[in-house]
């Protein structure tokens, strides 16, 4: 942190370095997929994660061939109650988890559609005039607190603990939950290959 002339404390440039080390394994796995998706679809793609009662952008990729694109900077955050990312994350929470994060606030009625179709949409909610589509992906489990803490100090310290972390998680089951599966009947409604591909991308 830094302190300005008025004595007000604010985040300093060092925070940008620390932010690169947050969920480094997840970032490394997701970044190439985001770049491919952004270039193929011609839109900005980003990964948002849950942070208390907010959605925070962890990674972002803009299409390289686009003349203009929406920029979603890592570290951008907004309430869990708005936007397609917020709806997608809400849909993956249990009732107890939701009430713990947002006591007294009722879940949005659109969650029924998110559960049915496997994705959430929004328009003009977080950024004026911008539409977004989000797919929920819930991964149960996390790295140990020691591993994460060392990673914030320096990436090499985290690397030194990598073998220990593998041994720590040996034999554990990691559960991953995403959108509902596509049934043969749903695919039958899209007999054209191009139409079926578009449908699957939206799923």
| Order of helix and strand elements from N to C terminus | EEHHEEEHHHEEEHHHEHH
Order of neighbouring strands in the sheet with most strands: 3-4-5
What is the global morphology? globular
State the distance separating the first and last CA atoms: 42 Å
Describe this protein's structure.
- The protein is of the alpha+beta class and 203 residues long.
- The protein has 10 helices and 9 strands.
- The protein has helices spanning 14-19, 24-41, 83-91, 95-101, 111-117, 145-153, 155-160, 162-169, 184-188, 193-202, and strands at residues 2-3, 9-10, 45-51, 54-61, 77-79, 120-123, 131-134, 138-139, 176-177.
- A hairpin with a 2-residue loop joins strand 3 (45-51) and strand 4.
- Helix 3 crosses helix 5 (111-117).
- It is globular.
Give the secondary structure arrangement, pairings included.
Blueprint: E1 2-3, E2 9-10, H1 14-19, H2 24-41, E3 45-51, E4 54-61, E5 77-79, H3 83-91, H4 95-101, H5 111-117, E6 120-123, E7 131-134, E8 138-139, H6 145-153, H7 155-160, H8 162-169, E9 176-177, H9 184-188, H10 193-202
Antiparallel strand pairs: 1-2, 3-4, 4-5, 6-7, 8-9
Give a quick rundown of the structure.
The chain is an alpha+beta fold and 203 residues long. Helix content is 42%, strand content 17%.
Label this structure with key terms.
single chain, 42% helix, alpha+beta, three-stranded antiparallel beta sheet, 203 residues, two-stranded antiparallel ribbon, 9 strands
């Amino acid at each position: 942190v830094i302190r300005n002339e008025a004595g007000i404390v604010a985040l300093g440039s060092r925070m940008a370095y620390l932010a690169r080390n947050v969920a480094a394994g997840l970032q490394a796995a997701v970044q190439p997929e985001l770049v491919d998706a952004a270039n193929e679809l011609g839109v900005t793609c980003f990964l948002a994660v849950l942070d208390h009662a907010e959605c925070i952008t962890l990674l972002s990729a803009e299409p390289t061939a686009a003349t203009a694109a929406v920029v979603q900077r890592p570290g951008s955050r907004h309430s869990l109650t708005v936007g397609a990312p917020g709806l997608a994350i809400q849909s993956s929470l249990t009732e107890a988890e939701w009430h713990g994060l947002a006591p007294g606030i009722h879940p949005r009625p659109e969650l029924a559609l998110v559960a049915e179709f496997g994705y959430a949409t929004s328009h003009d909610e977080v950024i004026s005039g911008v539409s977004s589509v989000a797919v929920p992906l819930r991964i149960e489990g996390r790295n140990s607190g020691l591993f994460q803490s060392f990673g914030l100090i320096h990436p090499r310290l985290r690397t030194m603990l990598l073998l220990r972390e593998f041994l720590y998680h040996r034999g554990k089951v990691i559960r991953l939950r995403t959108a509902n599966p596509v049934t043969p009947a749903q695919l039958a409604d899209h007999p054209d290959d191009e139409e079926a591909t578009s449908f699957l991308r939206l799923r």
